[in-house]
Amino acid sequence: MEKVKLTIDDKLIEVEKGTTIHKAAKELGIDIPVLCYMNLEDLGIENKPGGCRICVVEVEGRNNLAPSCSTNVQEGMVVHTHTMRVINARRTVMEFILSDHPKDCLTCAKSGNCELQDMAVKLGVREIPGQEYAEMSEYKMDFSPSIIRDLDKCIMCRRCEMMCNEFQTVGALSAFNRGFESAVGPAFEMDLEYSTCTYCGQCVAVCPTGALTEKDHTRDVINALSDPTKTVVVQTAPAVRAALGEEFGLEAGTSVTGEMVAALRRLGFDHVFDTDFAADLTIMEEGTELLGRLTAHLNGDKDVKLPILTSCCPAWVNFFEHNFPEMKDIPSSARSPQQMFGSIAKTYFADKINVKREDLVVVSIMPCLAKKYEAQRDEFKVDGNPDVDFSISTRELAHLIKAANLDLNTLPKEDFDKPLGESSGAAVIFGVTGGVIEAAVRTAYEIQTSKKLEKIDFEELRGIDGIRKATVDFDGIPINIGIAHGLGNARKMLEDIKAGKSEFHAIEIMACPGGCIGGGGQPIHHGDSSILKARTKAIYAEDAGKPIRKSHENPYIIKLYEEFLGKPMSEKAHHLLHTGYFDKSNKIEIS
Amino acid sequence: MSSIKVKLKEQDLNKIKEICKSFNNEEGELINVLHKTQEHFGYLPAEIQEVVAQELNMSVAKVYGVVTFYSFFTMLPKGKFPISICTGTACYVRGADNVLQEFKRQLGIEVGETSEDGKYSLSCLRCVGACGLAPVVLVGDKTYGRVSAEGVKEILAEYQDK
Description:
The complex is a heterodimer. Chain A is of the alpha/beta class. Chain A folds into three domains: 80 residues, Ubiquitin-like (UB roll); 118 residues, Alpha-Beta Plaits, CATH 3.30.70; 359 residues, Rossmann fold (3-Layer(aba) Sandwich), CATH 3.40.50. In chain A, 33% of the residues lie in helices and 16% in strands. Chain A is built from 18 helices and 23 strands. In chain A, the strands form seven sheets. In chain A, strands 2-1-7-5-6 form a five-stranded mixed beta sheet, sandwiched between helices. In chain A, strands 14-13-16-19 form a four-stranded parallel beta sheet, sandwiched between helices. In chain A, strand 8 and strand 9 form a beta hairpin. Chain B has two domains: 60 residues; 79 residues, Glutaredoxin, CATH 3.40.30. Chain B contains seven helices and five strands. In chain B, strands 3-2-4-5 form a four-stranded mixed beta sheet, covered by helices on one side. The longest helix of chain B is centred in the first third of the chain and has 13 residues. The N and C termini of chain B lie far apart (45 Å). Chains A and B meet through strand 10 and strand 23 of A and strand 1, helix 3 and helix 4 of B. Strand 23 of chain A pairs parallel with strand 1 of chain B.
């Protein structure tokens, strides 16, 4: 590789040709401020439209200032990153950006966690000259079931557009109009609800401002907790425990399971349960379905649909309903763990504690925004009463805990309640890419071969590559497994299946980078992908530390089947734990 | 619920497909496809953008982004006599804005709109290369130079009975 020598702030450095000034400076420990630029290195996702001009630097011999995020180094270049000219230019740029930005920071959902606000502080902006001449845009707010869009706060960094189009290939968002009126949104400025949006929330995860935020349900939860006629139960998804600590100043990758349980109990939830219990249940149903289809296939049944696709991820479900409706009978019919939990809580558990369905409120804590939409789907309601009443994100839970004046750091570690709080290590790894299929393999292997697994960890299914493949030996029968995270990668897998080129028996798909640990409802990572890696590590550590590591060995799952469901895929299980999918594609009609 | 319900006449649908095909259904040809399509239909309503997006295998949001970025493209049908006022630098400093305001007042429409009877539409453009005649107004293919706010009435009178 060709090398280039240059000087940055009087320091000599040699870097590879094609490196940007920003990256070269970083190697020297000089952190040039950026706003629109974002680099999720471990995932190969980079946004560098060079649009905001906050990262400008002075290059000797060049007339204008250079945007360091998108200017490549050259031999002999002499760069200055903090001359008076640079500092003034950055502040002027910031003043322009702020001139037509709403000034409601005090009540903005992103306050305290806003990259624009931080940058204004960093650059020492104390006044915004000329703001009286700036034209404020007046886009109407868009309230979808999962995501709220306030385009007046859009600064055109275009990170969301990049995630939606290049990484997810969803294509719901694009920049439109020009000048002061430019913003990012769906075609014809329609509401997200009518677009191809899957509610994956990756736009929210990367938005530097309050332009994209989640639909907040914390008030609803507080109201339910304050209502003496209601019994309120809570379920927490596996990825939440590996990230919640970040909101309380803990290092990324610090697992806070016990402290989270303690906080939920102090918030007033009557029963603190675990979505992991339902993840174990998912494995029983999905694993049985997989084995059923596999056995039929091996016995020569030509009509059986393979590969089977996992169906835990609601954004992924939305994605294939919009884009691949002709394949809607391929995914497993198993509901997601969130919905399985709701269904069991409002039948089996409600009966056990003798509470009427309508007096039981189920709250879920999710790393996800698509779960909000999923919870309100009609097929998951009984006489209008949803199985899951409110789904709140990891961030919203942190707000609730802080508002209650609780400090996660000083709370004791407590255990989940029984019976819906017991879970295996297999359930915990649902939170990372490859985890669901590893959990399924642990159970399917033992059921199919009647042998005990010698090695529980399937390293070959783990990793961060967007598309992974592995073959697992089921006692002489090779099972081909595919894994994809990110909907762009999922699309590739689906195109292969459509073309008859897929060699897989089973495929796990997660919409978000890294799986649920990188979900749209998690603490904002601000472009630092090492945070996702740290959360992944925490999840695998939690699995390794569990006494039970296979779903079918969870004693409360065994009991649930004995007392209530019968066996996996029974009629009752089918009714309560499975679902169907719908064609949501856009059709052209001829009149 | 999905996005806009697309309803088109079969011959129109086939025409859009034919245009896309003439550019090998390539995403990179979007602007050319939109040009040709607008030339044929006169404007680019949502339905047409949906079909173009499907044919070029790209998101309709992207197509909409391009349509709204370039002022040449319009989502509204143009009037029988499309009026364009040049607001380029030369025309602007010589009073194009006054002329524009007068057209708006006389026609009761905003820039980008079409009068209710479908007769006139109003748009702005940037420089037609006749700066010596500034401010310049175009009605269809006909050019008017050194237009003043007072002269607007006279121009419109020409088209009154057409």
